[in-house]
Specification:
By secondary structure, the protein is of the alpha/beta class. It has a single domain, classed as 3-Layer(aba) Sandwich (Rossmann fold), CATH 3.40.50.720. Helix content is 35%, strand content 18%. The protein has a 6-stranded mixed sheet, with helices on both faces. It starts with a helix and ends in a 6-residue tail after the last strand.
């Protein structure tokens, strides 16, 4: 954001999507440094979103759970089953689904979404925009919802 924000301020608008993790929303034993870093991204995103909103710059964070990347897919069946079981839908997110969500958040269709975090493993976009409630169809019939005025995540 160090270089993006000055360019966006000069341009008069912009959108930033930071990448966090579901571990940034909860704590896990044995992962203190990782969880702290991912939690920090979410808090940085919220602060930047509030600071930059009047400058027409939107800032959101994505907090995916397990994503089917080549490294994850090489983990073995037992590990993959464990990771899939951690998701309500009992499957991993795909990289394409993550990319679609980022593309949506960067698009003008999401021009009123800011100061939010997207928890992909729960398939919800959490946003603090008052009065906004929209549904966006994602790939394969999944529904991504933008919910307004959420105070506790």
């Amino acid at each position: 954001m160090k270089y993006e924000i000055p360019a966006m301020l000069k341009n008069g608008s912009g959108a930033i999507v930071n990448m966090s993790s579901a571990n940034g929303l909860v704590g896990l034993a044995g992962m203190a440094a990782y969880t702290t870093a991912k939690h920090g991204i979410i808090r940085l995103t919220r602060s930047a979103a509030l600071e930059l909103a009047e400058s027409n710059i939107r800032v959101c964070a994505i907090a995916p759970g397990y994503v089917a990347t080549p490294r994850i897919l090489d983990s073995g069946k037992e590990a993959l089953d464990y990771m899939a079981a951690a998701h309500p839908m009992k499957r991993l997110a795909t990289r394409e689904e993550l990319a679609d969500l980022v593309a949506y958040l960067l698009s003008e269709r999401a021009s009123n979404v800011y100061h939010g975090q997207c928890s992909l493993h729960r398939w919800r976009i959490y946003s603090s925009i008052i009065g906004l409630e929209v549904s966006v169809k994602a790939k394969e019939g999944m529904e991504v919802q933008a919910l307004s005025n959420l105070r506790h995540i």
